[in-house]
Amino acid sequence: MPNPQHALEMKAVTRRFPARARGAAPFTAIERLSFHVSPGEFVALVGPSGCGKSTVLNLVSGLDRPSDGDVFLSGAPVLGPNSAVGFMLQKDLLLPWRSIRRNVEFGLEARGLSAAERAARIERELRRCRLTEFADRYPHQLSGGQRQRAALARTLAIEPELVLLDEPFSALDAQTKILLQRSFAATIAASGITTLLITHDLNEAVAMADRILVMSERPGRIVEEIAVALPDRDDPMARQAMPGAAELVRHLFHALHLDDRIDA
Length: 264
Known about the structure:
The chain is α/β, with parallel strands linked by helices. The protein has a six-stranded mixed β-sheet with strand order 6-7-8-3-9-10, with helices on both faces. The protein is 35% helix and 22% strand. The relative contact order is 0.17. A hairpin with a 6-residue loop joins strand 9 and strand 10 (222-227). The protein has a domain at 94-159.
């Protein structure tokens, strides 16, 4: 039985795909994968390339279904796309013909909200994501970091129970990435929204998460769970400066056998 106190729960989930070539065996992306995320918790999922991290996000969002096992949101089974889940990718996917204000409104238009309620949510998220002065500009008039903040505002405006972040900073330059991590961390901490982050950046995982789940090589399983017992989750720069952060990154480096790859 699912635990209704968990915001997200995956129970013994396996996802197999048809063979890629004639005569080949089916392709298993993840196998008997189990974990949970508590309400308001920020969990990072790390693992080697091809271990099934994106498969996990597709299953949690309801864009895909498990071959075996179950996925639950607040105790209810995920049977398809769920309006309680917000999804952010590497690309901001803003609509170029809409202003930033109208992009933030996009996810609200099919929800039966009054014009006044839509306007209130839009202004709240523009203010929270520090975009008020850019509200009437178009995506091509904004920097990469500003567009990602607009994508976050659009996601938060629908008031999701769970936000899925799939490498949202990986396409940014180093300076913008640091600033945006800080902005996202503060915004998500203030909102109290449950968050699952997929990342290859071990420093990012330590800097932003309450807990880190380490996946194995394909087929992916959870092989280690690490509590990030450090303060300042809302300020990644401050957290990364702590001695304990470097120790956790080193631990993750060894847990993922990255030192073996360097020696090879």
